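Aim 2 progress update. The chain analyzed this quarter is reproduced below.
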Amino acid sequence: MKRFIFFTALLFNTIYFWAQNPVTVQILVQPPYSSHIEDYTSYENKLVMILSGQTNPNMTPYEVYFKGFLQGDNGVRVETDDTYKPPTPVEIPSGGSISFQGDDLDFFSSEHMTVTGTSTKSIILSDGLPEGYYHICIRAFDYNTDQPLSAEEPLGCSADFGVFHLDPPQILFPVCGEKIISTENQNIAFSWTIPINSPPNTQYTLTLTELQDGQSPEDASQAMPYPPFFETNTSTNSYVYSMADPQLLKGKTYIVQVRAFDPEEKTEFNNDGYSEVCTFQYGNKLVLFDNPDLVKTDTSISFFHLDTILKPVIKSPPKFVSTKICGKIQYKYPGQQGDELYPMKRANVKLIVDYTIGNPDDEFTSF
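Predicted structure tokens:
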């Protein structure tokens, strides 16, 4: 007897449920997930809605319209305005199904939405939806009586989907703070990472500008002149800087920055897509020492960790003397405090006398 009563109650509730909710709504949200809510009702296949109508005795179609909301786990909620009602109904056949795609729907358009948890201006005109997990729920209403014909949440809702801004690219070459050897034909292969999950049509802007004395790289990037020293757009994550580009000056320090952006404005990047600012020095600086007769100059001779040698400033025609020099080579670090010298061990070095300072009868200093 108890089983009969239970079965009867269950059957009654099921019949009552279907009588109250003769329309079934199924929602599917397609990746990639945009932070711009209008994309879900503006682009084909972004939001898919499948509607099924219960068979009714008269076999008449259901005339309906829709309202919905988007809810985030961050407190943001966007929903259709209470006064919204389209000029014409949608007909769902009795005992049949139809499907709609995003570009067929307008109940999430800016004219028909209310926003809580953030501002409408921020969602529509600025950064779009804040990062978080969201779901979309849609409900069908009788076009003539405004009564709901489909069930409320959690029925008629999509699965949760994440809206997250992509990380900007990271510069791979040159390494930040690196010194690039200057060559007769400048050829620098700038490269950077491709942001994870970025769309295939992502574009990049590479910018170079000279770092002035006393300027920090961050300040220089904020005060970057327009037009900058060099700027170009590319669809790949590299660019070969060649003789066709502006000539880099030896001894100068440059800042380099890359920005990733979506030309269709469907994808959001953190920091507006800008990478961190990096610097590199092109060639060697010309530095005066305490001895005014000596300068530090660029050279084609290079050692491991050493890329400069000392040569005198020639104020008069030098006198050249052929000689052999024997002894130990010692070195010190630039900027080192004190006069301590270190022996250079396990190195095969040929010493070439380029210039001498002094008179033939005096002691010579060779370089």
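Residues 286-367 form one domain. Residues 2-20 form the longest helix (19 residues). These observations will guide the mutagenesis experiments scheduled for the next reporting period.
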